[in-house]
Here is the input.
Amino acid sequence: MKFGVVGYGTGGQHFHAPFIAAARGCELGGVVARAPATVAKVRADLPGTPVFASLGEMLAAGVDVVTITTPPETRRDLVLEAIAAGVNVIADKPFAPSAAAARDLAQAARDKGVTLGVYHNRRWDADIRTLKKVVEDGGIGTPWRLHSRMDFDDPATLEPGPTGGLLRDLGSHVVDQALYVLGPVLSVDAQLDCHDLPAGRTDVGFCLTLRHESGAHSHLSASKLNFLNQRELRIYGSGGSYVANGTDVQAQAIFAGKRPADDLEGWGYDAEEHWGTLRNAAGTRQVPSEQGAYFRYYEAFAEAIRSGTPPPVTAEEGIAVLAVLDAARESAETGRTVTL
Here is the structure.
């Protein structure tokens, strides 16, 4: 199945193209890039891959799916252009500026009969896959409380200004992971840490409390401006607890020049010293890392197209994440808990 990538910034270069190349049954059919330096980068990184000046040019050449990974403010029109052409779409996160805007995109895809998916790739992180398996295997009993902390010392990648901010960036990931593990959300309480940047006031950190329909609650936080690099997952349940301090193993490997296609079987496992600890009535033990594998997203999306089944992350699931983010901003502004 032929995938086209629209945009070759950090997303296209590091988090899409290498994983399409590694995915079984998938092929990188081209990249949309216009700036001369970006075109040169595509040709150096991906010899022989077609480079197109526009999405329209790529659609005319023919692809089965397009991945839209341009800056957030440009995504809506590109998603609609691909849908209008009858081509399946993967939209990077956040795939719309609000849940209401996302519903319009989902309706457009339904009306045209194409599949629209959201690239919540961090469901395929090693640490969250391991935690999910611990929960599913009953290691902690009934989940009560999840703590998820994702701190990066990375101010250069903050999207500044009122339409950017960390809530829509890392918030998209940690909220989706919480829904993936604990299910739908009933209410949101949020605090945002805001900072005046040259492009305008920007949220550079957040702390969210989500109450889930299951009765569990999650507590999610992130920062990029506090000189911290720390990833922690902690979950409590009726039968025990599990704590992990993992690493961003796939991103670190990609930035080091490694590629998943070179070692599919060994890719994406956290080192033993970063394995999480499960504590329950049976005792205390380290839990081996599950595989982190973003390429599995692309394999699952291709299979969904072939079989006519839902994609690995549906537009509706993306809308649910955006509804939580919308509520979080409202809660932070009003100082009140917001019910969904």
About this structure: The chain has two domains: 2-119+298-312, 126-293.
